[in-house]
Amino acid sequence: MKKTLLYQIDAFTKERFKGNPAGVVLNADGMNDENMQAIARELNNSETAFIFSPTDSESDYTIRYFAPSTEVPSCGHATIAALYAKALEDNLNSCILRINTKIGILPVEIEKTDHDYQIIMTQGAFTLSPVFDDKTTEKLLSALHLDLSDLEEKCPVQIASTGHSKVMIGIKSRKKLNELHPDMSALTALSNEIGCNGYFVFTFDSDDEDILTYGRMFAPAIGIAEDPVTGNANGPLGGYLVQNKLVNYQNHYFEFNGRQGEQMNRLGTVNVKVTVYNGKPELVKIKGNAVAIFKTNLL
């Protein structure tokens, strides 16, 4: 009987029990949707990644991602975790691998230094939806228990995506960010209206010159009350900042570090790189550390 090899990885950190935990099943061949959903629900991480043998000549692996209650098309931290686990298990050297996901085939770079790894994920194509109308913004603010005066005036409220969309909500105060206690039922209802299940509240209120933003991400519609550190929020945030001309950059290139997880005591950092062409984001990459928590076989 085939053994199912399972890792638990904390992504976007080198400190155990910080960052964002993800389950990784390294040999998922033969599993069906029901199997994967049951494992994701049992582990109860925000996402669990399942690695399959390639089904085409263009990719090295196929990866699928499951939140506790549903499959999602892409996941930043679970990709970092999956390729980190694969690198550990196979003792990989620095290389570029291509993963087949629901949003297409994406290159992932593995950087090996001092017997450890950093993972760089190229995300999907960046898109930015129209700014929310006043009525939708009012519903959102009510659900987040925010006032209009809490918003950062220069930051439009709109949906950004590199494969798994998030609503971008810029606010003025990090203290206010850490005090948020959203109405999860209201956020879930709003998700059904706007077709987006994630809400990324961020601020430029940072006391560290190496950290541009602090953020929190809520996605109750897919069973994630709060996600500790979100690659599919910080990556699109980079594109959002560039396209809305909220940041300066040089030589068609913008890079920043976003921090998340402070309120949850699971602090992690996402490095985001945006290649810019004609003033618009052309390519978004996220880079992160990771650390293994356990490795086991499912009985």
TrEMBL record:
Q: Which Gene3D superfamilies match?
A: Diaminopimelate Epimerase, Chain A, domain 1 (3.10.310.10)
Q: Which Pfam families match?
A: PhzC-PhzF
Q: Name one GO molecular function term.
A: isomerase activity
* Gene Ontology, cellular component aspect: cytoplasm
Keywords linked to the UniProt accession: Isomerase
Q: Which residues does UniProt mark as catalytic?
A: E47
Record NCBIfam families: PhzF_family, PRK10281.1
Q: Which family does it belong to?
A: Belongs to the PhzF family.
What's the name of the protein?
Phenazine biosynthesis protein PhzF family
